Amino acid sequence: MPEQSVGVDIETLARRLDEAWENREPIAPLTESDGLAVDHSYAVQSRWTEMRLERGERIVGRKIGLTSPAMQEQMGVNEPDYGSLWASRYFPATVGRVEIPADVFLQPRVEGEIAFLIGRPLEGTNVTPQEVLVATEALAVAVEVVDSRIEDWRIKLPDTIADNASYGGFTLGPWSRALRETDLRTLGMLIHQNGQPVVQAIGAAALGSPARAVAWLANKLTSFGVRLEPGDIVLSGALGRATPAQKGDVFVLEAYGQPPLTVTFV
Amino acid sequence: MNISEDAGALLERVRRAREERRTVRRAGAEVGLDAAYEIQAALGEGREIKGYKLGLISAAKQEQMGIDSPIYGRVYPEMLLESPVKLSGFIQPRLEPELAVVLGGDLPPGAAPGAASLAVGGLFLAIDFLDSIWEGYRFSISDVVADNTSGGGFLLGERLLDVPLEGKLSLYLNGELLTEGPLEALGKVDERLVWLAGEVGGLKAGQVVFLGSPAAALETRPGTLELRGPEGSALIARIEE
Amino acid sequence: MSETTKVEGLARRLLAAERARTPIDPLTDEHPDLTLRDAYRIQEAALEERGEPCVGYKLGFTSEAMRRQMGIPGPNYGRLTRSMPVDADSGPIPLSELIHPRVEPEVALLVERDLAGPGLTRAEIHLAVRLAFAALEVVDSRFRDYRFRLEDNTADNSSAARLVLGAPVDLSSAPDLRLVGALLWKDGHVLDSGVGANAMGDPLSAVVWLANRLGEWGRALEEGSIVLTGGLTRAHPVGEGGTFVAEFGGLGAVRAHFGEEGQHAGHKADHDGGAHTRAERGPDPAPLRSRRRRAGLPTGGDPHGHL
To answer: What CATH number did the domain enclosing C78 receive?
Structure first.
């Protein structure tokens, strides 16, 4: 993987990702086709997001990716990455149930996460997990659908960063104040797919604790001149593995002290 | 800063001992508390203040030292530690079990106790790794304040605890109880914050205030550190050479 | 050689291995036809020989992953005796008393009324169980290198050796035990993690299984029994010693510290050990203590006669 991109056209790559998203046709890894390196990958992500914002998309928050040691090892990195949550792919749940159309994705996978609703601005270079919790208005369990515009998920770090951290869409359980005072590290989470257990995980799987992952994000965003704002939603990273999903699948996510969240792919 | 010759000498002494990580014996004239806080501030000039630590919170200790309020030190970003904590980074480390407040809102000087309660974002378990340049922790009140109130480093728990809290803090090393003390000994959180905000010209949202220890400070050695607090909370860390 | 002689002989062999802290080869090497029924008889014979009152049960192989890893077809149980509970605050667990201990975090439950199976449902168990505890189980197989079949492990009392209980937590204030996360530390490093569901899908289901299993043999799960419901992570070797801490969502933390001989002994063989301490911390100590006293081996008859 090259350290620096040579002659990468940010505009072209952003457009290619956007077309793949719109047409649901995967493309070759940008690292292979264009020699994209980490140095320009966030620029591609930003440009792609701008293109979508110009067409009426809204950013409702951020997602953190690569929070597990296994994923970081696979990518050869020692820190997570992040992307934007686009409102067009937020699927609101009603009384713990939501239907998500399977055909808007290319190759969707399901992850269970903890979502933070930011209550006060968070910025700085030394933001701590404790500051994150204190600045958090409420938390919720979340199902994130990750998806890749890169064929067969053959991603390297610059590919997934440019591809909006492999964002697909998300849904949330009810916002809970009580979760702020729950030890998120020892919060257990189970996911069943069509009645079979597929994930048994605890909060510590996301970078040691979900609040730690959000602190990483606040510090990282500050280095890009962006801050977490009140009302932002942050998906703090997968607890356990990502499970491939297809039309007809029913996923039930359960977490400590929270009502179940049922996601049906239709 | 316009300080006396004695204060200037103390400032240099503290600065050099901290840089060289060595102990010194106290010497010279008393500079007084105000000058000591000016020295503390001068030594941290230009650095981000992540918060403050309180010291000498018990009335008995205050009387012994001839003061009628706690003292405070500044907490800089690099003082917030992660496990494992290496003792080699300290001059003469000692441990105290503590609670820390992280502020959810700004608290201007002169605010009412009610405003302070509202500004409390949450409480967390904490372990204070004290450090001092003063050999054997033998110091006068201005010595210790000039030396940033024995500020060394801190570990913070990750579980947000809400007030009111009852119970005690118990600190274990390698399964053995090192020290413990009741939470009542920490005093009223809102009053502490009001006092501190008055002293330092206001506190900001996100800052952390270490409330002081309900138990005596103890020397330590490498091993597994375990702080147990209210509501089944725990903070676990490793200490290395 | 009669069946009884064989059972007693194998029971004595296991006890001798424990006392000498010298592991032996699996019994099934020599007796490949050993049945599970034989195995429980050996377990029972060894317990009688040991002569200590029982304070509860421990379940083994309650996780699918663990069974697959060890090639074990189903769960089993062992008995907890009075010398096994350790008070976390009374010094290290001496390594010299153990062979090759391993540690696993578990949810422990206190059974507050007799449960007579078979056919008991989860709802009935729920009514009989009010208090849960964060627990660390110390297993110590009497077999070399932990090489055994289900029958060997059952005869060996499911590797039971020591346990440490945290403070009691009323289940009405603790949520669904399936969703309790456990974080296991050794010497200040995170070693492993798991969730309550790893114990047979639910620690309460583990008690259902136990009560019904005992019921099939005409026995009750006695009031006052502590049940260790099965490891939430795999078992981790203690090695040269050290400090294990397990943190549980909603159940608090529990510690087991291992040290060398000469340090203050961790377990107290001359009284109720950890269970005593637990009862003293409990919200309702006196009734707990009396219940526990009544918990013991059932009297009369072959408990496995219906096998």
So the answer is: 3.90.850.10
- CA atoms of C307 and C304, how far apart (whole Å): 5
pLDDT band (50, 70, 90) for residue C290: very low
Closest Cα to residue A162, out of A1, A17, A4, A2? A17
Residue A203, classified by CB atoms within 10 Å of its CB into exposed (0-12), middle (13-18) or buried (19+), is buried
In single-letter form, the type of residue at position C176 comes to D
Q: Is A178 on the interface with B (CB under 8 A)?
A: no
Residue with more model confidence, B3 or A125? A125
Write down the pLDDT at residue B86: 97
Note whether A51 and A14 are within 8 A (CB). yes
Q: Which of B113, B111, B85, B66 is nearest to B202 (CA)?
A: B111
Domain count, chain A: 1
Please tell me the predicted confidence (pLDDT) of residue C91: 87
Residue A49 lies in a domain: no
What DSSP state is assigned to residue C282?
A: S
Residue A13 falls inside a structural domain: no
Let me know if residue A9 belongs to a domain. Answer: no
Residue A223 in any domain: the answer is yes
Chain A residues with CB-CB distance to C249 below 8 A: 182-183, 186-188, 202, 256
A214–chain B nearest CA distance, Å:
13
Q: What was the pLDDT predicted at A195?
A: 95
Domains contained in chain C, number: 1
Neighbour-count burial for B116-142, b at 16+ CB within 10 Å, e otherwise = beebbbbbbbbbbbbbbbbeebebbbb
Structural domain range at position C150: 53-294
Identify the residue whose tokens are 């012994």. Answer: B64
Domain that holds residue A163: 59-265
- The pLDDT of residue A73 is 85
- When the candidates are 3.30.450.40, 3.50.50.60, 3.90.850.10, 3.40.50.920, the CATH number that belongs to B5-240 is 3.90.850.10
Residue-range domain boundaries for chain B: 5-240
Write down the ipTM of this complex.
0.92
Tokens 């702080």 correspond to what residue? B227
What's the whole-number mean pLDDT along residues A60-80?
A: 90
- Residue C24: inside a domain, yes or no? no
Tokens of C13: 């062999």
Per-10-residue mean pLDDT, chain B, length 241: 80 95 87 95 96 94 91 97 96 97 96 94 97 95 96 97 86 94 93 97 97 94 95 95 94
Hey, what are A97's tokens? 């149930």
Chain A contact set for B233 (CB, 8 A): 183
| Residue from the list B175, B232, B238 with its beta carbon closest to the beta carbon of C92 | B175
The confidence score (pLDDT) of residue A69 equals: 85
Instruction: Provide mean pLDDT across the span A126-137.
Output: 97
Residue in chain C lying closest to B82 (CA): C188
Residues of chain C in contact with residue B83, where contact means CB-CB under 8 angstroms, are: 188
Considering only CB atoms, C195 lies closest to which of A182, A185, A202, namely A202
Given a cut of 50, is residue C262 above it in pLDDT? no
Contact B232 C243 (CB under 8 A): no
Q: What is the CATH number of the domain that holds A96?
A: 3.90.850.10
